[in-house]
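User: Can you help me understand a structure? I only have the sequence.
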Amino acid sequence: MATQIIPKKSSVLGKIPLAGDLAVGELVQNLADHCLYSKDASGNVFRIGTRPVPDKVEVFDIIGSNLYYGKLAYADFPNSGSIYDSALWDISRTTTDAAGEVTAEASATGAWSNRTSLTYA
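Assistant: Let's start by predicting it. Here is the structure, written out as tokens:
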């Protein structure tokens, strides 16, 4: 009977494993990004194979009367962890009233995960 090998996995978009998460030669797959990673003898985590890489990621979220729109350039993707924790997101916030009319627009730079607590100008 064949031995089934199931590597570690993540479903978090942009998640890259940390060196401490892997043994040398161990595999981990990111199901959301369709990427496979391993670790070399020097402790470096590397991606196996190639995949078309977008020039940026764009996301939006609505919280209460605020619409948040964020852009992160591929060049600003972190080397490890989630892209959502990168402090280099360009985020705009549009605020509307009860009738749906825009009452304010502002922007900030920071982590997408901190979008509600950033100082917008």
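Now, to help you interpret it: The first strand starts at residue 8 and ends at 10. The mean pLDDT is 88. Let me know which part you'd like to focus on.
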